[in-house]
## 1
Amino acid sequence: MKLTFRWYGESDCIPVQYLRQIPNMSGVVTACYDVPVGEVWSVESLKKLKSIANGVGLEMEVIESIPVSEDIKLGKPTRDKLIENYCENIRRCASVGVKCVCYNFMPVFDWLRTEMYHQNEDGSNSLAYSWADFQKIDPHNLHLPGWDESYSQDELQGLLEAYSHFSHDDLFNNLVYFLERIIPVCDEVGVKMAIHPDDPPWDIFGLPRIVSNEADLDRMFAAVPSKNNGVTLCTGSFGAGRHNDVVHMVGKYSKEGRLHFLHLRNVKWTDDKDSFVEVGHCTKDGSLDMAAVVDAAVVNGFDGYVRPDHGRNIWGEDAKPGYGLFDRALGCAYINGLFEMAEKKNK
Ligand code: DNO
């Protein structure tokens, strides 16, 4: 495995050289975050990001994300041009040495929480999702933690309306249409596409979601069989859904050579509905067996990229929720330990 760390480029509050000091760190996971969705990234900006990473001894082999325009998901007539741009972005990323691209196909919101600063007993705070609080949200006057700056009310209502007669199959067919056009480019330039699961893994506000469980992934892989059509297995996203056996999924997709990127984080289920809190990475702190997850990956020949996912804000850090340095670095230390043990045991 290659241990990586998400870094938001020059605007990230964490100096990139700090990342290099995390034990066993191989590279950054980043993107051209300032380019509007659907547009082509300049090779210069990719090269600049790469040279900043390389300058401190880190690689830049993983992009998260090249975002997919809503018009592609909705199958609008503009999609062919947008898919062409997407293919061009894949080629440009490959030209600077990128090997893996994470993306998602969730309509409108790529993650959803009801709280960004949930207060934990130990004084830390983290992201959380409460079933009860979710019921109180008015879909016709949506104000969502973390999303208010991304859409105006009119845009949001327009998008919700555009999807209102849209089924899971409609969205799936548009995903297949997209994959059938981008995967041949990946095959040509040697890039692994890794779809990120729905977060949380169920429908919200009547929007269809199609990457929520094992059957969804199987259907997607059967439709476009190239191994470059793979998954970002985010344990916290799939694992928020109690219907998902994350350990089994990690083992299965490692074995099939479809698990290209592993996002490791733990969640704690907090009631008998769908509520959960993001916790520290250790098994003991949450509801997922992190040691078993890593073991399943190693036993089944996983050979991809790993990154710690959302950390809590700890030690007085006030970082972008989920993306501080301290707790993710602690996560790295723990992840290194789990992999070292599992690899020794399975030699
Ligand atoms: C949230 C992230 C997501 C993820 C995208 C990938 O913290 O896990 O925003 O990067 O869904 O496309």
## 2
Amino acid sequence: MSLAEPSSRLLILTGPSGVGKGTVLQALLARYPQVWLSVSATTRPPRPGERHGRNYFFLDHQTFMNQVARGEFLEWAEFAGHAYGTPAGPIQSRLRDGKTVVLEIEVEGARQVRRRLPTAVQVFLRPPSLAALEERIRARGSDSEDSIARRIARAREELARAEEFDHVILNGDLNRAIAEVDAILQGMMPTSPGREQGPNQSPIKGIKGDGTAGQGRSG
Ligand code: 5GP
């Protein structure tokens, strides 16, 4: 597949909750202004400090499901009792503008994107162990016992699927993980931004909807 294909400028970063996807991306987004982190929609309530439109679009269940019915998500999945989805419209417009787009999503959604856009680059970040993962989730201090238990149970399933993805990166040493994702990202950067796509072409076929952009997720 040619790197000129727009969806080859789409990076999916997946892996269990708490593995450090957000931390790795924060470091990389600071380095590359031409990389845009998609802002997801969720039915999960905001954590302290999270802002609507920046960390997530916080929606009630009905609104979320209406958007699903209208085909506005590139993918969506249930996770730990809540729904999460990637709005397709903003991704289309960023790809059209020649940007590199990053999705930070759980594994089921990543599989959906892979089926839909096979040239998207898929990276699975894995923890050194489940115990280390649990420690990280607890240290974050933002989840109830019930939410921690659900996330760990889900992590077991997700880890079993790691090998489905193009790249599996161990997040044992944070700087090393950042450098490995960085190398992948650099390999995806277009040489002449915006030239690959004619103005009337849609990078993601068969997807409706457009939306507003946020500034990225913190966690
Ligand atoms: P959290 O509740 O900790 O913010 O997110 C829980 C999990 O949902 C994390 O693994 C996160 O990466 C994932 N997630 C966030 N946004 C999306 C999305 O749009 N789609 C999917 N499938 N997963 C998402």
